[in-house]
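Morning - flavin mononucleotide inputs below, output right after.
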Amino acid sequence: MTYSLQGKTISLGVTGSIACYKAVDLASKLMQLNADVDVLMTPSALRFLTPLTFTAITHRPVITSMFDPQSELSINHVAAAERADLVAVVPATANSLAKIAHGRADDPVSATILATRAPVLVAPAMDANMFESPATQANVELLRQRSIYVAGPAEGRMASGLVGRGRLLEPAELVGHIRILLGRAGDLAGRKIVVSAGGTREAIDPVRVIANHSSGKMGYAIAEAARDRGAQAVIVSAPTALPDPTGVKVARINSALEMGHALDRECADADAVIMAAAVADWRVAQIAEQKVKKTGADTWTIDLVKNPDLIAGIHADRLVKVGFAAESEDLIDNARAKIQSKGLHMIVANDITAEDAGFAVDDNRVIILDREGSIERLPLMSKYDVGVEILDRVIPLLGSLA
Ligand SMILES: Cc1cc2nc3c(=O)[nH]c(=O)nc-3n(C[C@H](O)[C@H](O)[C@H](O)COP(=O)(O)O)c2cc1C
């Protein structure tokens, strides 16, 4: 397990949009993260889905009315509002946005929002013309001014067949937004954390590259862990197959030199840089302008020149610098030497010969060494949890450099 919503109660308000079915998937995803999920439905939502669908997923009764004697809300009409750590209205119809913006409370969803002290997220879903209408736009603006988090909508094809802005975000993205909102006041709030990720590619000619096996998973997991604690997280990413994490800026580059330029730009106002990328030590001396043809020769020699040491080259006074050392021998000695030579505060060393950890897999087993000489061997854990451990050690340094 990695990120967890254990101990958090999410009130999920479902309103009468054709996109209701995505709320079922969202409820399931929140349950998989161990959240307690209270579903509340408007009368219109009941025309699209039955409460049974949600009950089967959340293992709780669904709240559909304030006046039904069977409903908890008939005893305490603000019960769901009080126990929520976050209220998410997914999907949010134009009608419900208007009601929330104007403080109406005549159904379980709008009444709960009016009564809660928890952060509120709304995810609009409607026909593009309904969303762009001056009334809806004014309502959305009003909600934003009142610190309600508006997630989406996205551009795309809608149920009407029209293409435009009004599509409900996908459940996985909505989970990302919920994580951002829950982490907003976290211990990295107001901090900018830059993470490099993936394996750089050094061009040989227009079609060939020198690459490496880094998947980018480690760096992306660190950035997500930073985002979940309130940081402004940026990934300087070499090519990977990974999707952009919600709420994380991803600056895409190919070569080590390009990564260097992007890091210089992003680190100028950053608090910490964590170099999880596998940066090529060498690049091709002369990149061919045309595809190199196969000749009669049996061998082909390519001249390489050294790439600059990117992390050693980043100069910023208050920047905490964390390096990675992927080694196949003399792990500790090599890692220690890198702390010195690169001016790092900390280095995360991993043995790339271990079968259950390292490249491309979801877990890692690392040793964290710092400037003061401490060596901590961490057990095998998810890359997200490695990110949490690294950030736990970065945070005290941020204080001392501020
Ligand atoms: C088939 C169908 C699909 C609808 N889809 C949407 C929608 O995606 N977004 C929206 O704002 N309204 C949609 N509506 C209109 C709402 O259901 C209607 O405005 C209703 O009063 C919303 O009530 P509620 O906000 O209390 O759930 C749809 C109506 C129908 C019949």
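Note: Residues 192-401 form a domain with the Rossmann fold fold (CATH 3.40.50.10300).

O.
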